[in-house]
Amino acid sequence: MNKGRQTRHEIVNGALSLAGKVGLEHVTLGVLATDLQLSKSGLYAHFKSKEALQLAVLDEAVGRFTAEVVRPAITAARGEPRFIALFERQLEWINGSAIAGDDDSALSAGRCIFMALSQEYDDRPGEVRDAVARSQRDWRGALQRAASIALSEGHFRPDLDVEQVAFEFVGIAMAFQQSSNLLADPAAERRARAAFDALLARCRHG
Amino acid sequence: MNKGRQTRHEIVNGALSLAGKVGLEHVTLGVLATDLQLSKSGLYAHFKSKEALQLAVLDEAVGRFTAEVVRPAITAARGEPRFIALFERQLEWINGSAIAGDDDSALSAGRCIFMALSQEYDDRPGEVRDAVARSQRDWRGALQRAASIALSEGHFRPDLDVEQVAFEFVGIAMAFQQSSNLLADPAAERRARAAFDALLARCRHG
């Protein structure tokens, strides 16, 4: 990686870390320059606007999510095992243990940036909001495909509504995040698993 | 209401409206003064700190939620009808149609301030975070009590885990909010109802 790309990478990582603490909406070039002890003009050489930076941060988060959740789950056997692996990886992601590498951010402390972003931008039009929505649609799409494969493998019932399954999967993950982080409920993981087991049972038998 | 209380009320309403747009964390006395076209010293006469203002805003939101969701649901018959009424009111709240009165804020545009706050403060220690967590615990408690009554009325099965039910209820509401607002999915309400019907079926029969 050349020097310019390396610096850009460091800025994006720093911004992702900061976004986990103050929210992506409030990661401005000024705040970030202070946080990274860089000059504001140095930042401007890499990102022309706050939106360009935010989109790069979101892109990095999507890349990590793909690497830590989606790709490992796809190594599980087609069908129900893969669907279950997506759930396990999602729990780990929310718990923060799925985050490896060069980042000591609030992500590692367990905050799921996509859920935070999903709240932060859910009624604020713009390019960042569109990108956040796209990332969430893509994730639901991945869940739907996994459920469809489980259906075609005969693990799930043939009349299963896979979009409904993705909706409920997402809800369980969100309730888990709130229980685990905000409410610090020691039963959070047990409850998430019980909810997912009930969803699985309905996927199998209806 | 005397003049001082009236002004305080207007400030809190203005702040709640602003919180719906920029996030409660970023409702500072300076930003709010500009937004309400008041002097900063005028605001300081009513709120000594940003935290005091944020707590008052949260308190106002809890009051509205109680008035628009909890209290009307309690007029429904004890047991399952009341549990269902809580769900119906929660959907309306998220849709924004349950908000009446003197506020043209982003709340009316459908943003659920509690879910936004739940994300915003889930890993930031402090008095505001504690109050947000308490509001969410109280809401889960209300759901648990409604489920317990349905159990004692014989509507729900006797071995029902009512905390699990509250966890899953919250997850459905969160997935609904994301589907409805961020993703603008026209099927959002139908999916939320299908998920809730499946939860109800399990409450009855296990």
Q: Greatest interface and its residue counts?
A: A-B, 50 and 50 residues
Chain oligomer state: homodimer
Unreliable stretches of chain A, pLDDT < 50, 5 or more residues? 98-110
Structural class of chain A: mainly alpha
The ordered string of helix (H) and strand (E) elements of chain A is HHHHHHHHH
* Number of contiguous helices of chain A: 9
A few lines on this structure:
Chain A is mainly α. Chain A is built from nine helices and no strands.
What's the SSE blueprint?
2 copies of one chain form a homodimer.
Chain A (H helix, E strand, L loop, with lengths): L2 H20 L6 H8 L3 H7 L3 H25 L5 H16 L17 H8 L6 H26 L9 H21 L5 H18 L1
Descriptive account of the structure:
Two copies of one chain form a homodimer. The first copy, chain A, has nine helices and no strands. Chain A has 206 residues and is mainly α. About 6% of the residues of chain A have low confidence. Chains A and B meet through helix 1, helix 6, helix 7, helix 8 and helix 9 of A and helix 1, helix 6, helix 7, helix 8 and helix 9 of B.
